[in-house]
Amino acid sequence: MIRVPFVPVSIVRLLKPLLVLTVVCFILMMCVRSAPSDRPEYRGYYLDATSEQREVIEELFSLLSKESNSNDENFSIVREIANQYSRLNDNYRIINFLSEWVNAHQGDPYNSYYLLRIADCHLREESKAIAALYFDLIVRNYPDLIVRGESIHLACLRQLITLVSNARANVWYYEKLISRFSDKIDLAQAYFMLGQAEEKNGNWDNAIKAYKNFIPFYGAVIPGFPDAYAYAKQVVDFYNAEKYYAMQATKFDRTFENLPALISTMKKTLDGGDTQQLWRYRARVNFFARSWTQIGMEDEELGNFSISTLSSSGRVQYAADLSEGSGSNDAYLRTWGWSKLTSIWYLYFRKIYFPIDPDIHGRWEWAGIYFGERF
Fold this sequence. Notes:
single chain, 375 residues, alpha+beta, Nuclear Transport Factor 2, Chain: A, 3 domains, five-stranded mixed sheet, 16 helices
């Protein structure tokens, strides 16, 4: 029985309906064809080249038609025929030739390689969606091969994570990369992007697990995510400390609906001179107190630190407006008059990102203190 190649639904959704129909019909037609070397009527098409190359290609087809060839011998011949067309920049003849060969030789152990060449040709022709179909087909349906020291499956997965935007498919791709090729990939990036994909799918437990695996890679650079570490740590820490926000009173006493409400409360508290009340407004997750150049000490490391030890007996003053660098997700308020040792404090506020709990997601909180003048 001739096997019809499987086209995964998650990838098909990426294509327009007409394109899907075209691709599927093309694959079905290929499945009923014999190999090009066995079909004399196709010789003219495959031999359309310069006279010198025509002789080489014709000789290669003659060699390919021998029934006594081993799989290894056929592989060398098929690859060289494809290479001849590659020298002509004729991607479509490579696609047609290798497609017919694969579908006429379903048991060929080198089919993974041939399909990879087909996918590469589609990339060269800017047919990225079709190329993704083939990359996915190889990983899911065909055994792996090592070519020039690199796994074909690894090459396909690397392409798929850039070509496919479907979150469910991306979860599968990153899981395969991590489980099979952890020593050959940027593991930090894989864990973070797996967390992103799981988050998009709404699988928060799995997302948190991926982010927890990412956090030990402190300092890792994730392209497109300059604050990846802070992002992952905040989500994980909120997840771990959700018990602190379990009571409705706690949620709304320490968090504020918007930034103006938070700033207003902080200023009124400073005006009243009650620094202990101010301290009670601090965030329960990742609150810090540090200089601008210090890596920092988070909430659990503050120990016996108390705002009263650094507070002045006089009135603490504050700027009328937020400091430069404040934005839609975090903000700074310059204050002074705390103590002779460190008079200037910048109060740091952040917008909470925690979609797991809609009650606090998007609210604002006082997240830390920077000591000294800002550079």
